[in-house]
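Researcher: For the record, we're logging two predictions in this thread. I'll number them. Prediction 1 follows.
Model: Prediction 1, sequence and structure:
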Amino acid sequence: MLQYSIKKRLQFHLYSFLITNIFLRKIRKINKGMRMRRIMFIKNEVMSSIKINTLSNLILSLLRKIYSQLLIIAIVKI
């Protein structure tokens, strides 16, 4: 009888260990997926900000060229 209860207790511990292990693995997979999604989101944000920066730099350089052309025209007229 004593052996039986020890065996049952060991079985219970083994099963609970296996179940918690499976749950932990699933949680880790979910966390890994969330981390990948977060990385992709950050990457997209960075890429869009780079695009905005290059666009603003392009506009600024165009404005500088226009401004310098206007200055040259103004100097020539004077």
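Researcher: Logged. Prediction 2.
Model: Prediction 2, sequence and structure:
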Amino acid sequence: MGSCLSAESSRPLPSSPSGSLGVRRRKNSKRRLGSRTSSFDSRREEQLHKIPGRMFLNGASDFASLFTQQGKKGTNQDAMIVWENFGSRTDTVFCGVFDGHGPYGHMVAKRVRDSLPLKLSAHWEVNINEDVLKEISLNTTGSMNSEDTAFISADEESRPSIDLERNRKAA
């Protein structure tokens, strides 16, 4: 189980108990070259650890606190995250608790914890950029329309005077 709550002061909490306590490795477990736990995944995980404002282990900041405790039933299959300044916005915090189920539930929960915020942020940026482009396009179209309208109205204003001059010359 995990929890995410808001806090007003920062207070460091002990590191995650899921690190070395209570976790046993199989004696014959070896990484396979084509497995999901390749060096690419560990490099990606290292990069995620370095992102400022992103918490996923027990800890606290000025705005949030995370805490989980290993139970007696086996591997903790929950993963959690608090990401302050999410999407490069100082007023946005992403909070998530992901509940894993089944023999690989802990791996699925961690994968979702690591990939979902990145996908949301990327999708958000694309939509923001599309909205900006639409606004620029509308503003450009609007300004062109106002220029065209000004040209047409100036043209229409000059027509009566031209028509009067033609009528005078004809008479």
